Amino acid sequence: IATYPDESQSTSFRIYGDDWITVYNLDLRGGYYSAYVSRGIGIVFDSCRIGNYSGYFGLSIGGVTGDSSRYITVKNCEIDAGGGFEEDWECKYTENGVNIGGETYVVTIQDNYIKNWGHSSVYLRNTTSTNFNDSIYVIGNEFTSPDINYGRAVNVDVYGKNATNVYFLRNYIHDIPTTNQINCYGLEFSYNIIDGVVGSSWYPGVGT
Question: Is residue 54 classed exposed, middle or buried when 0-12, 13-18 and 19+ CB atoms within 10 A define those classes?
Answer without folding.
Answer: buried
